[in-house]
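input
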Amino acid sequence: MTTRISDIIVPEVFNPYMVERTAELSALYQSGIISASPELDRLASSGGRLLNMPYWHDLDGDDEVLSDTTPLTPDKITAGQDVAVLHLRGKAWAANDLAKALSGDDPMRAIADLVAAYWARQWQKLLIASLKGVFASPSMADNTHDISEDSNNNDFNAETFIDASHKLGDAEDRLTALAVHSATYASMRKQDLIEFIPDSEGKPSIPTYMGKQVIVDDGMPVEEGAGGKIYTTYIFGAGAIGYGEGGAPVPTETDRDSLQGDDILINRRHFILHPRGVKFTDASVAGAAPTNAELENPNNWERVYEPKNVRIVAFKHKLA
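output
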């Protein structure tokens, strides 16, 4: 008798473990850039493709001198609305692709780890696509530090990085991590800018810069510019990206192609992965949910928080 994927996968066990492992395997999640929220979980499961997230604007206006003849003038608090989109993604694998995993001592765990690692990579691609669109939007100009055409100092170094971080003004200390292209990372190492912190669990040391965790990904934007390539580094504050996991009607199922002799594992996910404070306008989306290419469209994004509260800076630079 042959053991099939349907004999191994128990959806009630597989799905929670796979979701948890996705977060564990995501460098973005582990850095604190992505923060899970029960409220976003609820929104992701509430129905609808656009999810409204109202918020209160901060109080403003000058205080008044107290008087025994002139009463205080009551002011008001106003509300705004952030909007996230529900991502609907899925993937199927044939058993032959998972043959190596099926040879392990715990096949279900091995399969779940492979699927979780896959989704962690897809998260990163989706987020980078979103950030490309977000920072191409004119509304995000105040959160962009572009020195790529500066003839005197246009490369990534300590001075220019401090200038980029200072785009958030007195909220600069909220920035905790940066995502860089591997070429930028190599330049930083040559400049002896990287420090390594030993991992408490015995994993490879964590690279940091000015106390901020460094995440390396070759999906980071690279453009051809006059005199050389232009790289974009994103600098993040903790919780800059909100994450909520929804419930696909059938998140995991198995199938059998008898003619090919293949077992098939199908995995579907509904989730929110949203840059807080930049609403998704849905101006140009053809299907039920945006593709990565549509996430890169600046027409689909508009900043609604004040710039320092967005907690993300795009730093465009060249390399020495």
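quick obs: The chain has a mean pLDDT of 90.
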